[in-house]
Amino acid sequence: MTDLATHQAKLAGHLARFRETGILNLIGGQSVSGAGGTFQTHSPVDESLIADVALGTAADIDAAAKAAKAAFPAWAALDGETRKTILHRIADLIEARAEEIALCECWDTGQAWRFMSKAALRGAENFRYFADLAPTARDGLSLPTPTHLNITTRKPIGPVGVITPWNTPFMLSTWKIAPALAAGCTVVHKPAEFSPLTARLLAEICQEAGLPPGVLNLVNGMGEGAGRALTEHPDIKAIAFVGESRTGSMIMKQGADTLKRVHFELGGKNPCIVFDDADLDRALDAAIFMIYSLNGERCTSSSRLLVQESIAAEFHERLIARVNNIKVGHPLDPKTEVGPLIHKTHFDKVTGYVEIGKADGATLAAGGTRVGDRGWFVRPTLFTNAHSEMRIAQEEVFGPFLTSITFKDEAEALAIANDVAYGLTAYVWTNDLTRALRFTDGLEAGMIWVNSENVRHLPTPFGGVKASGIGRDGGQWSFDFYMEQKNTALALGQHKIQRLGA
Ligand code: NAD
Fold it and tell me: What secondary structure letter does DSSP report for 225?
């Protein structure tokens, strides 16, 4: 048996029960169907039906929010060490079921095994990291003045809503849910309608690990239905959202009446800037990895390549050869580098940009065509001779689609890099330290890597500027969102109080 066949056989075993029962919601510790009936989830690999999924409505969200509200006081009051133990148990179970999670994720989203097997383990790492912070989550400061001792403490904000997208959904869900639970919040999770499998696995794992009923609730459904209802629910105190910038804008409006606190991780059009003094071998590897890994369906992907004119011809020649060599195939095949896009509408969007790029006058240097006639496979695509004002240089394509622009000097590179609505990440390649510091200082981006691809260190702040987001995750930044600061001032003695009416 090939590795692909082994993976397929194992996956079939894991999916069998979902075919029988469908993918159910989890509300107050009970697996329940949705008030709206069901919807279907299909695999992007061959368009086949995976399972029926509970279609949650406003009524299900209401039940889940009430369960989260009921569970909140006890979970919030639990000592941090106990929360830590439970969260580590969740991480243990994720590790034990990492293969199952990765297989399901590949089949549900089209992401390649080589990346999803690591993403499943990163989900466990997210739980371990925040588990260890749980005992100190409430820590505050002592801020004395001559007359008063101010004591700050942190309290969990209450039940929160977590709304996640379909790209690397398991990893992203754990990145939101783990800190919320560590802080003492209870959660209602609304996963993307296109990738419900691993959200269900996570909910089951949390239950098995001993998370009390109602602490994590799962409601599947559509954005306009269950998603909207979650953002409008008065018992939900905050919304952590990962998705498109325009959805973030809608959520802000929907949450206005109930004064929701929001945390947004949104889109990107991230530049990878290669100066002529860079280590070009490494820059080439990183530029390719950062746009074509994860099918380019990655918020932090370097979808704009900015190359200095003096090295552009040689760099492009090597880039084209490598892009043409990328292995597109079945996501469960360990050799596959790029799998199918998530669904037909997204495939149409991504391939539509091929025509847009050509019409705008850029050069299609690689890819741009469909692979096969089943599933949503597309050849990794590269446009050269592009300009910053073109749509392929401005809009988030969210696929294996790279737009290359040349620049003369540092000033022009910075102007192009910042000339988009987004500001999530940037990648800078130069061996000139002074230039690196000067250039990164001018970049409009929340996260920048110099001479590196995206390598995450969990205590560092993760998030974007401009249309790429509001707020930061990671370390204490996550607790800033999921917790309230409380200040208590104690008078140290008999300070003078103004006597009115005396
Ligand atoms: P999307 O905005 O279409 O959907 C995301 C989630 O929001 C889904 O669960 C969806 O059902 C829900 N939703 C949709 N409309 C809603 C509404 N009116 N109210 C409440 N919920 C609603 O995004 P997507 O297509 O699933 O994901 C891709 C996008 O996510 C890209 O733009 C990508 O850049 C972004 N993303 C950003 C980050 C980051 O960290 N900045 C990470 C991953 C993905």
Answer: I
Any catalytic annotation for residue 299? yes
Contact 157/483 with Cβ under 8 angstroms?
yes
Report which ligand 1 atom has the smallest distance to the Cα of 191.
Answer: 9
CA of 241 to the centre of ligand 1 (A): 7
How does pLDDT run across 106-124, given as a tens digit for each residue? 999 999 999 999 999 999 9
Cβ of residue 225 lying under 6 Å from some atom of ligand 1: no
CA distances from 441 to 82, 123, 194, 240, 275 (A): 42, 32, 38, 28, 16
d(CA 166, CA 313): 37
CB 265 within 8 A of CB 245: no
pTM: 0.97
Can you list the domains of the chain with their CATH numbers?
4-266+468-487 (3.40.605.10), 271-450 (3.40.309.10)
DSSP string across 347-368: HHHHHHHHHHHHHTT-EEEE--
Question: Catalytic one among 125, 265, 337, 395?
Answer: 265
Segment 408-446, tens digit of pLDDT: 999 999 999 999 999 999 999 999 999 999 999 999 999
Cα 177 to ligand 1 centre (Å): 16
